[in-house]
Amino acid sequence: MSSRWLFIAAILGFLAVLLGAFGAHGIKLLLNVDDYLKAQNWWKTAVLYHFVHTFLLLFIAQLMRDTIHLKWLIYSARFTLWGLCIFSGSLYVMSLTGILWLGAITPIGG
Question: Model's pTM, two decimal places?
C-alpha cells in the first residue's frame, strides 16, 4: 500500500514541476494581458499548494512504510489527495478559464 502512495506522490511531484514550468512560460500564450496577472497569481498559488500536498503525501507514505498500516494513515492520504485535487485543481481551472465561482470551492480542499 505504501509503495502505491509513494508512486502517486512521485507522479504528483512531476506534475507540480510540469505545471509550474507551464505557469512560468506557457500560460501567457493562452491569456490576454488583462487576465494574465490575476491568472498567474492563481496559478502560482495552485502550484505552491500542489507541492505542499505532494510533500505531505510523501510524508504519509513514508509513515505507512515505517509503521503498521493504520487505517487513519490511509484516510489521511486519501483526504490529502482529494484536497490537492479540489484546492489546486480549482485554481488551475480558474486561471485558464476565468470562471470566478470556482474560487468559492477552492477553500474546501485547503
Answer: 0.88
Q: Following DSSP, what letter does each residue of the chain receive, concatenated?
A: -HHHHHHHHHHHHHHHHHHHHHHHHTGGGTS-HHHHHHHHHHHHHHHHHHHHHHHHHHHHHHHHHHS---HHHHHHHHHHHHHHHHHHHHHHHHHHH--GGGGGTGGGG-
Spans of the chain below 70 pLDDT: 1, 32-34, 69, 110
Domain count, the chain: 1
pLDDT, residue 102, reads 81
Owning domain of residue 29: 2-109
